[in-house]
Protein: Carbohydrate ABC transporter permease
Organism: Paenibacillus rhizoplanae
Amino acid sequence: METAAVHKKKRKPPISSSTGDRLFVICNYCFMIALMIVTLYPFVNVLAVSLNNAQDSIKGGIYLLPREWTLANYSYILREATIFHATFISVLRTVIGTVVTVFCSAMLAYTLSRQDYVLRKFITVAFIMTMYFNGGLIPNYLLIRDMGLVGSFWVYILPGIIGVFNLIIIRSFIENLPESIIESAKIDGAGDYRTFFSIILPLTVPVLATVALFSGVFQWNSWFDVFLYNSSDASLSTLQYELQKILQNSNTTTGTSSLDGMIQGATGGQQNAVTPMSVRATMTIVASVPIIMVYPFLQKYFVKGMMVGGVKG
């Protein structure tokens, strides 16, 4: 026992990391900090411009903080009567569109992942072909019109109900799952629907969260379909489309010049001014905040879903 204690005292301390390892760690930290700055700076700069007096922003030199703080830019955007209803429509289409797209894509991906499905290769090739060839704007519009979707809320949901890229990612993820799990479920008497809802969906949460993020961002940022199919119906207008109209009106009214390019308005008894540049910065912040608030809840699934779903084992 005494010999063991002496041997323990004589044990050499662990060898410290070499100079090369320490240099690599330092360089790695420096690179990541620089990458973080490069990534965050544009957003912080746009936020500073949106909170700065528009006339003062024309002079330039706005980097991280506003020189003259003001909320006039946001007042100009949010004073539009249709903004809040358009926001509701945007949230509604984003939630419904994301849920429907993820669910339908997952069901189709599970079907195409089954080796015993004889049409799996044909249907997969047919979907992939749509990524390379498009019918064009006019045929698409005629198809939507003949389906009776013009002037309808469902024109935001049904045409994009299946995303080929999302389909491929989910199918690859499912194909990486152990086949023994599905075989065990079938031995226990589970059918395809029971297997899908009880086995596949719980195991594919990471890739479904990734696809939900893709679909949600697409639905939230879409405005061109509103312009094509529902521009005459204000009750179906979305936030992005209303922001586009505000920006277009500011450009049309004021042009793109500096001092002459101002929209004068009275807010709270004080004279304020906005420019197309300040409107554009404010629009970016208003449109980005909801996605930024949702992303942290899905971020932990994002990397795993992309890595496992993007490469077939």
